[in-house]
Queue: 2 jobs
Job 1
Amino acid sequence: MLYLAIAALSFAACSRPYVVVQIADAQFGFTASDKCEAEGVEYDFDVKYERECLTKAVALVNDIKPDAVVFTGDQVHHALHDQEWKAFRRVIYGMDKDIDVFHLPGNHDVQVWDPALNIKTIGDHTIDMQPYELYNSRSQFCHEEKGLALVGINSNLVKYEDPREGDQFAWLQKVLDRNKDKVTLIFGHHPFFLKDIEEEDGYFQIQKSKRKIYFELFDKYGVDAVYTGHLHDNSEGEYLGIPSKTTTSVARQLGGGQPSVRVITVSKGKVYDEIVRIH
């Protein structure tokens, strides 16, 4: 069992490692909504599949007893659907209260106004954060503990050209500088790239024009790894020696993955991770 392996690693290191569980794309309502769309009928609130999957993930988390859990976005499928948000929150309420829990927004957790599609903006912004902010107090974070920094960014600002990206980039530079001597893990929703930093732009990735800007910043301040979601499948690449890993959905799959979480273990300055199926 995974938690036995963690215990063994702890014994070998003579001190308990720091463990993070990443949970990606629970996306309550996705499965039923997709089915209704295919059948040409109106979506009727149904989160049964996602609730079952996330409930199993919460049980796994409570079994492992990690230090932290990071939800890397798309908690719901419809940002304005209050019942989906409440159903998601009810499940995660069962998580052990001693575990630090962090949330980041995915594209389905906010309203995206895309100028490329001739969709209006909200003032000067391309992202309406209000649906997400009704349930979450922050859309970025820096958690520092035991020689480790967990840094979460709002990748929507990067992907959808929101003017607030500049402020976030300045904040990111500041927190990375402050933690440059620590093991540092970056979390976000959108992958910077899936396999190769030079791959062409697509729906899932951050724009090619921005990738090296961020990874050169990560390299400058000694970031150890980047973890994202959004793909509903597993993928990984590397640039400047920094692993970039995309974690599949805890529920609905769009590729060959299985409902899973990623368990990240930091021990003696080294980062290890593995995909753990919830079924």
Note: The CA atoms of residues 157 and 164 lie 6 Å apart.
Job 2
Amino acid sequence: MQAEREETREHEWYVPKFGPRRFRLLVGLSFFPYTLMNASYVAIGSLLSPGANLGRMGGMVLVYLLAVGVAAHSLDAMAPSKPWGEFLSKRQLWALALAGLLPALALGLYYAVVFAPVLLPIGAVELFFLLAYNLELFGGRFHGDAWFALSWGFLPVLAGFAVQTDSLSLVSLVGGLFGFSTAYVEVSASRPYKALKRQASSSPLAPRLEAVLKGIVAVVLVTAAMLMVLRLG
């Protein structure tokens, strides 16, 4: 029987091997490459719109960085099956979650009221998934790969497009499908990768899954960067 390491995120590919253990655990908790993917989806949606306003794009990217990068991951660490949040108390995790969520809600509401009312239903659905997925509410019914891809891949593209146009279009839906499919690949590879990294003994499958994760992050970030270059050009 294979021995298992303590179940934390410190063994994942994006966590540095240097520094105090608490620092490495905090980096692991941040999921920062996947947060950058999520922010890139918002940028992609904005850049697919005609005449994208870069200020509004940056503001909506900040909304998702706060809501997902800080709030969602703090809530995720409090879910029943997530022992990797134990290095922080529940009070500290709630403080982090609220510190990310409240300004994200305020900024998102500002953009919805001033520029794009269509963001209101998108934001309401995203808030539902932020709570239901990460806290594993309703018996974990919404804590599945397809729901993850919808909320973290598909809807952010729509939000990025909507903040520019106050509408949705076929182009935004196609962009959303790109977000859904790449997010689905990421989460589908991440779950077995996480399980393998818990094992003290190495598995030949772990490096392959790690390559998939690095590759899908790169694809999304490069796509956003290329769209930005085309827009600026």
Note: The longest helix spans residues 170-197.
